[in-house]
Amino acid sequence: MIGHDAAITAISSICNLSSSTRFISASCDGHMCLWELEDGRCIDSISSTLVHRFMQTYTYKSSRHTRSTRLFCVGDYSDIVVMDPNDLAVVFNLSSRVEPDWICSYDIVRRTNKLEQCIGISMAGMIKIWSLVELEKKDLATPLYEDESKRLGLRDVRSVSFNAVNERLLLTVCSDAFHASFSLNCRQFQDSGDVTCSLFVSSQGKLLIGRTDGLIVLTYACETLSCHLLEMPLDKPAARKLYGHKGRVSNLFYPHEHHPRFDPQVFLSGADDFAVIIWNIVTGVRLYRFSVHGGPILRFLIPPSNTSKLISKCICAVAADHSVSLLNIRDMKCALLASQHPHPVSLVKWRPLDDFMLVKLDNGSVYVWEMGTANMDRVVTGVAAEEVLTACDEQIGKEEGTDHTTASQAVVIMRALRYRGIDMVSSNCRANTPESNTRSDSPPTTNELGGVALGPPMSINQMPGCDQGTHLVQFEYFLDALLPKDLFFTVLYNFDFSRFNHLSELKLYLDIARLLLSLLHGWNLDRDLDAVCLKKLGLNMPKQQLYFGNISRHGQLSVTLPQRIQHSFDHYSTCIRWQTSHSLTTTHLLAVISTANTLMGIRNSPNKKLVTDVPYIEAQQYKQGWSLLAALHCVLLPDHIRPRSSYAAPRIELLSRRWQDSCVEIREAAQALLIRELSRLGPAGRRRLIESWTPFLPPLLDPALSIFGARLQSSVPTLPPSAPPIPPRQRTSPPPLSPVPEPATGEDGESGIQQVRRNQATAIILLGVVGSEFGEELNRADMTRATALSLLELLVAAPSALLPVHSPLRRAAIDLLGRGFVYWEPHLEISKVVLGLLDLAGNTEKSSFTYFRPIVIGAPLSSIADACRTARHSLTLIATARPTALLSALSMEVARYNAAAQHQTIQHTVVSPLLKSRSEVLRIIEELAEKRYNDVIEMMLPVGDVLVHCLDTSLLKQKTLADVFPPITKFPMVAYCASTRRIAFGGKNGTCVVHELRAAKAHSLQAHQTPVTAVAFSEDGKYLATYGGEDAKINFWQACQTFLGIGQSQMKLVKSQPAPAMQPMSPDENGIVFRPKMVWINSKALTLMLPEGREQRFSI
């Protein structure tokens, strides 16, 4: 387990139980980690200024039915610090009133029928006794002080021990009273291998290995790893040997991966022969050899990008002779050699606009070199040295030429007076202010250059703390995001050398994907599928037991190391692989399923001709093979494990947190796996799962612990009522006192505010998934309501530190609101849901250029774009599941806006929430017209109100309604008159609503007693015809103006004629029933189009 950068000083379990699988480690840099032994993962970590030397857990009875555990720590600080072992938070301190000092050692005394005590001895030999009573009432503001203290004649106490058999004795062990012999003949072991350094160039897939004899080996990484780990043909991997160094190779450096301004074909090597050699990574040719240093090369650095043109071509090399050089790798010259340092170099910083390089030594002094002239400017020591180094970070990330680039002129002059003297003041005053700026030494990321920052799909690193011949191979989760979805399938077999660079990059990604699947596939579980993988998919079976690792949330690493007893791969793959760790199973299944689905989704480009060497049928067989591979790991894997009870199932809480992963492929894999695991649990298992996670729903928790705070935004009504009057206070009644909340107590190892917050997020997603997929099992109304309110609160809550505006938790809530809306609807106010989703989906229009430009095909979306995409999908699910409820909510918002707009003033302008996302509203209506045709007819009048409100009526001056919104032409009960700019909608209740776009008014006509089947305007707009199929008549309405055209026009019934009744018709293959239509043939006559091609004319 690798999680510390410094020496580990203390280790302790989190409790005294033998079944405990968690422990805590602390290092001398103040870093603490909480580890899980079974999965080898780091659950939590913190960094502080406290250095712990010894830790011990103490369990006590905090109440009648509860026991709590605390961690007592001593170290390089006064007295004893008491922490919560579950979240590493400091609870309180055991402090001293008399001579506070570092505690050397302590012991907790437990005696029958007596108070438990803590006895500690300080560095100065002072013994202190604390009575451990009322610990649940202690916090950082109220420490526990000692009962008594006494000075002893002891120094350097190493251990204190108490034995309950003889309560009058205390055993102490001191460094001068106990001596150990370390006279064993210990020899220093030499490295068995000759590998001294390595470098993996991810952009080209090449692995560089430096050896003790000065040789550099250049290989293709995937090929080398496959030969070492997989059963491959006996052919050795193609390797190129680079001769040039005469001593141990100490450093390999590829500048292009640090900044794109460097040549991608160049890499550097440094060795113990004091030389720096520049190589061509493609041809393996040695380009130049620098021999300017007098010691082994320690490391390479690059100057910032905003230095001068000469220095921007240089690489900084630091050597063991305390020298620093700037090597121009384009012109093959040494631009600067700083070799007058009396102590080792610890840090190099830059002031690029001042043309300075600052070199800090181990003794704290700073040497300032002028890069342009290669002269030493000055030497700064003491506090001034720290201030000069700190000044290099003042302008990190600032653009040149802005107001933030430089310090004020007065500050520049004061710095010049302090460090350079009076002679520098005049030059500073004459200089342009931006030129005396301090800039960052960090190169710009790919985002600053207009690209997308995607990590390499694979990395190979030396294992820290081990033999340098041992390496770790890490596969990134975004490997599947880097595979283009429109990849030409036959590039695996037919290379076009005119596009060699592009195809070699694709080949690298596909080779890494095949290597990953070869290592992670569940071999020996399905022999038929193994044969498909070997023959069709190009995978290879591992030839020995594999040793996997896991990376925790904060970057801590745990790796399984080889053991004394080695198992064959067949035994390992069937009896050990899937029975060891739940976390590894989760990670491996997500990687296999997402990568296999990505390879299965690779399709032939439509604009390219299919190569005849790989026919279409064979391409489909490849896709079928990837599909079978994904199905084995997603669905069938538990059935192949024997015994089935030994299967280490994926962790449901980890899958829940991946429900809305930023990578779409991993998101889909996590969702499929979680639903599979919930189905495999069965009704009884899901019921136990619901019961265990329901207490963590935020509405059921104490508001002090809830991630939503004391008040839910979703519970705020649309029109908040006024507060009731305050009753008068009587003189005899005391003022009300707010209750003091009880401190949080630990239960079942899940205490700590951070853990409770994580559990809340997991509970919301998990119960939301259960409710969406197995809604009937949330049989308690309070449980369903709490889940629904939690999802809604995540949608409408204001952004905060706990709930960022576009976090994965919010996206998960948005997605689950749509998936399970049928079950959430009785407990929610649908208008809040719809408006919240429309507001997010509307960001697509406002941010289309900034966040949605296609930079890399298949790259993960930004958080804003992902939230918009999820909100659009959720709206589609709600519209499909409850179209009438959605349309009613939209119509109510239109009516509310119209009512408010009639009473608005100049100072208070009313803005419609639907207008901000009008295109999304129209998209929903268009989808409903395609999928829910009959439901739209049922709600035609509300649909008409929403359409008139959201359509851009200015477009109707030049275009027809069919051109502006084509789906409306499917409905014969909708008509538009271009000459008078009127739109008529016929409703199910027999009412016809005519909207006048010029006057922004609407007329309601009671046209029929039964549903209106069709409406039509005459060409001049004077007449409107309505047809009722059930009451079998056609009505003609005429628009009448008032005297002199003043006032509003009115619709008057001028004629009513009998018409054929509409006969029941069976729907077509699309589920649409033929409906009669009316077509005006002239200004006085129209034709009624009936089924089976029948027509009938009517005239006024």
Protein model, in words:
The structure is a single chain. With 1100 residues, the protein is an alpha+beta fold. Among the domains are: 8-182, YVTN repeat-like/Quinoprotein amine dehydrogenase (Methylamine Dehydrogenase, Chain H, 7 Propeller), CATH 2.130.10; 195-393, YVTN repeat-like/Quinoprotein amine dehydrogenase (Methylamine Dehydrogenase, Chain H, 7 Propeller), CATH 2.130.10; 489-551 and 561-650, no CATH class; 972-1099, Methylamine Dehydrogenase, Chain H, CATH 2.130.10.10. It contains 25 helices and 46 strands. The chain has a five-stranded mixed sheet, with no helix packed on it. Strands 1-2-3-4 form a four-stranded antiparallel sheet, with no helix packed on it. Helix 14 crosses helix 15. The longest helix has 30 residues, at 664-693. The radius of gyration is 38 Å and the shape is globular. The N and C termini lie far apart (91 Å). Mean pLDDT is 81; it is low at 179-193, 395-399, 401-453, 478-500, 604-613, 718-751 and 847-857.
Condensed summary:
This protein is α+β, with helices and mostly antiparallel strands. Among the domains are: 8-182, YVTN repeat-like/Quinoprotein amine dehydrogenase (Methylamine Dehydrogenase, Chain H); 195-393, YVTN repeat-like/Quinoprotein amine dehydrogenase (Methylamine Dehydrogenase, Chain H, 7 Propeller), CATH 2.130.10; 489-551 and 561-650, no CATH class; 972-1099, 7 Propeller (Methylamine Dehydrogenase, Chain H), CATH 2.130.10.10. Helix 1 (221-229) runs parallel beside helix 6 (500-520), helix 14 (781-796) crosses helix 15 (808-819) and helix 17 (830-841) packs across helix 20.
